[in-house]
Amino acid sequence: MTDEYSASKPIYLQIADRIIREIVRKELTPGGKLPSVREMAVQSGVNPNTIQRTYSELERMGVVETKRGQGTFVTEKEDILIELNAKIQREVVEDFIQNMKELGLTKKEMISSIEKYHSEREETKKW
Amino acid sequence: MTDEYSASKPIYLQIADRIIREIVRKELTPGGKLPSVREMAVQSGVNPNTIQRTYSELERMGVVETKRGQGTFVTEKEDILIELNAKIQREVVEDFIQNMKELGLTKKEMISSIEKYHSEREETKKW
Amino acid sequence: MTDEYSASKPIYLQIADRIIREIVRKELTPGGKLPSVREMAVQSGVNPNTIQRTYSELERMGVVETKRGQGTFVTEKEDILIELNAKIQREVVEDFIQNMKELGLTKKEMISSIEKYHSEREETKKW
Amino acid sequence: MTDEYSASKPIYLQIADRIIREIVRKELTPGGKLPSVREMAVQSGVNPNTIQRTYSELERMGVVETKRGQGTFVTEKEDILIELNAKIQREVVEDFIQNMKELGLTKKEMISSIEKYHSEREETKKW
DNA sequence: GTGGTCTAGACCACA
DNA sequence: GTGGTCTAGACCACC
Fold this sequence. Notes:
Four copies of one chain form a homotetramer. Chain A is 57% helix and 6% strand. With 127 residues, chain A is mostly helical. Chain A has a two-stranded antiparallel sheet with strand order 1-2. In chain A, a hairpin with a 3-residue loop joins strand 1 (64-67) and strand 2 (71-74). The mean pLDDT of chain A is 87. At the C-D interface, helix 1, helix 4 and helix 5 of C face helix 1, helix 4 and helix 5 of D. Chain B binds a DNA duplex (15 and 15 nucleotides) through residues 3, 10-12, 36-38, 46-50, 52-53, 55-56, 66-72.
């Protein structure tokens, strides 16, 4: 009855999101091996079945490939990775724009706010 | 042991956040009355004590004022509302910048992405 | 079981204290009439018996005198009033000194703290 | 209707005051551990939730710090302790001055009353 | 063990 | 009615 506030997305998707984020941040590199289902299950404190679903979902999206007897690997297909990156980016941008609109800001103001808060430090390499 | 994936803020703060968002979006107007503790508790499917705590927290922050025996009201102090708005905006912008940096984008690219995705439609009024 | 924190002194003594304070502040003047037991009981939201005890106590201390059929009056005996004033004053001073000692202050520092916080405004007349 | 004479602050604040006094008197030393919530609850004859609230309030004020799974400790930040001491002192002095004014005393008389009642014994060390 | 959150149900003061 | 305090008893995460 009190669980409207912890429910959110199913765990297997939360984990999928986390892995996608790691790929996008290049913490997981193309062609790199993911932890085994069992190992990941232990790491995440979750039932192996849950991780199995996560990996299936990622395979369905094309971002990982399973090689029988060897394990699960981040895809090396550039187009998929680029597409993935673009999709995440689109989500981030649209989310940002919507939030800023709710705050009553114009496009101009959004841009100047970025100028204001962006510290120039290290620019990471582009895909 | 299986709960790294609920990890959520306490309910009373989640509700506080929700109310703040409503104030910032002007769904709740300055001087406007919030639902009573008991009513909000029913709406949120939560114990009245939890809402009490939410309202206390909001009062401590200065965004609401309670009048004994009458109810809880959004503050009319402009400076607090403006500051609140600025704080939320800062959070949104910094979150956006961090996300985009993780995607490997430069400031320039962030700005052009906004140009790209921003549909010109209605510009809402500024504070 | 939870009443260590509301107990304090009995009500009849609390009321006596209040009356004494009023006499000392000259809100009640020597020879002046106190409200009747019944009236005071209503004013204080208390049982008349309680006020009766209050007045008895004050009479025992000599600060009021009861005249049969007329009521209860603040004494006009100067020595008692002066003594009363001196006693209250002694209590206030000793309380202050003890508090300040607990804060680790020397006599010198106590005096300078008074110099510091005392605003010169209106000095009321002395007894 | 009979409760003008309990009129007391909430218990959780009374206990907070008591703890503050203990800190100021150095009965609780900086870095020292407070009794656990449950233990303090038993000592004070009060529900653990009430003590929890007390500790929260003290933490909000910055005079204690809680270490998860370890306990609640008096802060070691000197500035906060000094400020706390100053605040308490100010309250004591202002209370004293007001009481003495009600008794009709001038600043000069207040000072000489301290000279009179202050016994020279041990001067405790200053902060 | 520790503090932190939450529920259920009660009583209070204020208006 | 309103918000504010308190109790009783529970479960959680951290150490």
